[in-house]
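Re: beginner question about structure tokens

> Can someone show what the tokenized structure looks like for a real chain? I only ever see the sequence side.

Sure, here's an example I had lying around. Input first:
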Amino acid sequence: MHSRLKEGISEELRGWNWDRPPMAPYSQRILFGISALANRYCETYRDIYLRYVLRKKVPISDKLIKGLLLHKLVYNTVARARETIIRMWPFRIDDLLHELTADEQPVRTALDEIAKIFGNEAREGLEAIAISLHRFLVRQTVCEVEKARMKYTWPNVETVLAEALPSVAEKRVDGSRLGLSKNLSIDLLEGNIILEIKTGEMHPFHKYTIAGYALVLEAETGVPHDAGMILYIRFLENGDPIVTSSSVIVDDALRREFLAIRDEAMEIVDSGIDPGMPAKCPSYCPWRSVCHG
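And the corresponding structure tokens:
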């Protein structure tokens, strides 16, 4: 990964060149969400046509609700851990573990947010996995805190926080310079590394999410963002969570591929013509029920 990072990125493919080709969008009539572009379930882009031309809402599914819950829970747990570490410092590590494990506010808040969006029935059956993931995240956090404390002879709370927790959670960014939404949210940032949380199966197109956010961050900050990591959360039959990761290098090829997706989506919206369904629709496409009735 590090050797590939040393390879130069073409200047024209940096997000800060948002006002010139190929970075500049040829139309800003529609501003796309990054997930709408990156999640290339549909080869013909009919999902773009349905969502942005016909203005149909993304079908609500158990997978969508679960994914949103886990995103909110990760953010809530990180934020609460930061507050607790600052409040308790200095502390015995066992006391921190007990305090964070017993604190159910991140779980309650995440479940309440889901109920507010989708109704109370949406939270049914989700409490067990929410508690399981919260406890897993707490154990991981406490482990990282202890490693950070052991690393330094005289650690302070700021150093430990910087080592143990992501520097930014749910960072809001404006992607409109690139023809993207004005209200984008990046899951986690660790320095210049973009961290994206996913649930369910791994798909090759997930890397486009990292690419899109990298370009937006470069456009907004003028700082290079050349790498990211996708964190996949899944649950075993006993309810225990497992987290795996996949590194992403945001090189020239990936940047061009993301821009090509954006431009193709813009052409479909501008033309207003139904591109039709692909020869074969994947079973996991969230729009399948719309296309096939």
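Each token stands for a local structural state, so reading them left to right follows the chain. Residues 62-164 form one domain.
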